[in-house]
Amino acid sequence: MRNPIQPEPMRGPVLSRWDLLPLLGAVGLLLLCQRLWARLPDSLPTHFGSDGRPNAWTPKAAAPWLMLGIPLAVWVLLLVIGTWATPPDPERVAVQRRIMAPMRALTVLGLFALLSSIVLIPVLGLWVFWPTLGAFLGLLFVGLGLLVRLGYLHAPEDERRLWRWGMFYVNPEDPRLWVPKRFGIGWTLNFARPWAWIVMGLLTLLPLFLWVFIWLSER
Q1: Among candidate residues 10, 198, 156, 178, the one with its CA nearest the CA of residue 89
Q2: Mean pLDDT of 19-36
Q3: Which residue has better confidence, 11 or 186?
Q4: 6 has a pLDDT exceeding 80
């Protein structure tokens, strides 16, 4: 039997008021599709090259499922990550849910904005791709900024010393290169170790090399 004097563990709701933003984004995208449906061609652009021009198309009937399915899958993934803690700790999960809610909502809202270009480009032209991409990147960066800020504010004093901006682990006294993340699933680097910067550099350069390879292959 649990001690009645012991306080209840803080759990917090699984969903947040922030999740209304992706819901509004989904409704807005459906209304946009309904309004433009009769003016759309049978095939819609769903993939773009490095020059912003479409290089893959999807049948018109399948496009709404794609535009709703991708954001929904990302939303579910981020929701699962936000409710997972190793080892299990109800209080840690409650804090984690609050920290990740803005980032989850803004990222998915940005995806809805980006995917709206699928139905806007055939009507308005290719230029629509860049504003929608900018909206996605802007919302993504704001969400990551809020994640970092809230992670710092919710960190105990002893952890703030070791986790810079609530995100980067820097502990010269810890010999480990890889350490468990404060929140979510997986591991992160101990940036007090020189090898951490080498690994980070390689992880950063790999997407750049892939982008250059794709760009050259399209020439």
Answers
A1: 10
A2: 94
A3: 186
A4: no
Q: Which of 122, 154, 186 is the last residue of a domain?
A: 154
Q: Same domain for 82 and 146? A: yes
Is pLDDT at 158 greater than 80 in this prediction? Answer: no
Tokens of 11: 């759990």
User: Which residues fall within 8 angstroms of residue 25, CB to CB, at 6 or more apart?
Assistant: 71, 108, 109, 112, 113
CA distance 100 to 186: 15
Please tell me whether residues 102 and 206 are part of one structural domain: no
Does this model's pTM top 0.85? My answer is no
Contact 136, 71 (CB under 8 A): no
Flag whether 191 is in a domain: yes
Are residues 25 and 130 both part of a single domain?
yes
Torsion sign, CA atoms 70, 71, 75, 81: positive
DSSP code at position 6:
S
- The mean pLDDT of 72-85, rounded to a whole number, is 84
Structural domain span for residue 172: 165-219
Residue 45 CA to chain centroid, in angstroms? 23
